[in-house]
What does this fold into?
Amino acid sequence: MSPESEVPDDLIEIHDPEIDPARIMAEIRERLRRRAAGPGAPFPTFGASGYPGEPDGEDYDPDLYYHLRRANELYARLDIEPVLAPSPLTRLPVLGRLWRLIRRQAHNLVLFYLAILARQQLAVNRHLVGVLNRMAVQLEVQRRQVRALEEEVRRLGGGGGCASP
It folds into this structure.
């Protein structure tokens, strides 16, 4: 069943001359078609922001940019792998093999649920790091604006005091 047959043309009835329902439906159908094409289909990143880098030629907080760079490097790293410490019980002749099997299966079950939580946390981390990147860019923009305003105040001769009549 194609996306076009799932969404009828008369589903939306709009009586506003500035809104074109046919264009909206065409866009919806196109997005459904791209989504059906699979995970390789390009979707908008909704403003994902990469590491902005240290500002050139300006004074900046090196600690802020160090931690921001490290957060960008590490947020997607998931180190979930089976690591079982040796157990003296695994050396028992009869029960050791059974104990190893039980331990391994229990460990894999824990890793399964841990991986689910880790993927959720990774999604949160991706958004948080993107927000931090955007905030760092905004911080630099605002610093430049403040410097420009301070320079303009100095240029206009504003010594900080008011002249009284």
